Amino acid sequence: MARASYRNSDVDLMARMMRAEAEGEGKLGMLFVGNVIVNRLVANCLDFADLRTIPQVIFQVQGGNYSFEAVQKGSGFYQRARESERRLARQNLEYWRQHPAKYSLWYFNPYGPCPPTWYGQPRTGQFKNHCFYEPEAGTCASVYSG
Fold first, then answer.
1. Which DSSP string do the residues of 75-117 spell out, in sequence order?
2. I need a labelling partner for 130 at 20 to 30 A (CA). Which of 103, 110, 123, 138 fits?
3. 62 - beta bridge partners?
4. Which controlled-vocabulary keywords does the entry list (predicted)?
5. Position 83 pLDDT exceeds 80
6. pTM over 0.90
7. How many angstroms separate the CA atoms of 131 and 11, rounded?
8. Residues 6+ away with beta carbon under 8 Å from 144
9. Using an 8 Å Cβ cutoff, are 107 and 132 in contact?
C-alpha cells in the first residue's frame, strides 16, 4: 500500500521539486527532499494540517512565502521532470523512508553548521548541505505512522 495516494501529475510535480531543491546532492539527496514532501502530506498536523494533495504541499504559502523556495526562485522547478526523477518520486510516494528525513517535516540549507533546533524542532541529521528536522516528540504522531 502506498504511503499516499497520487496521480501522474503529482509524480511530475514532486519530481520537479526534488530536482530543484537537491539535484546537486544526487539521487539520495532528492529522495530525502521527497521524503519531506510525503511526510508533510501525511502529517496533518502543525503547519501541515489540512494538506491533502501534492500540489497543496508544494504550493503551500506560510508567512507570505512559499514553503519551498524553489517555487519562487528555482528555474529548475519550472523545467519538465525527467524519468529518473519520476522514479525517485514514485519511490517516495510508495514506500521509501530513510534517516535523517524518515520523519522530517522540515529541511534547509544553512550555508554553515546545522543548528540543533529549527523553530523549536529537533535536528535529526544532515545530508550534504541540508539539515533535517522532525516534530518534537508528541506533537505530530501521524508523521510517525503515515
1. GGGGSPPPHHHHHHHHHHHHT---TTSTT-SEEE--SSPPPSE
2. 138
3. 65
4. Hydrolase
5. yes
6. yes
7. 24
8. 103
9. yes
From residue 120, alpha-carbon distances to 47, 134, 139 in Å are: 13, 10, 12
**pLDDT (tens digit per residue) in 15-74:** 999 999 999 999 999 999 999 999 999 999 999 999 999 999 999 999 999 999 999 887
Phi, psi of 8 (to 5 degrees): -60, -35
Kindly report the backbone phi and psi dihedral angles of residue 62, in degrees, each rounded to the nearest multiple of 5, phi listed first.
-130, 130
For the record, the C-alpha cell of 94 comes out as: 510508495
Cα–Cα–Cα angle for 88, 93, 98, rounded to 5 degrees: 70
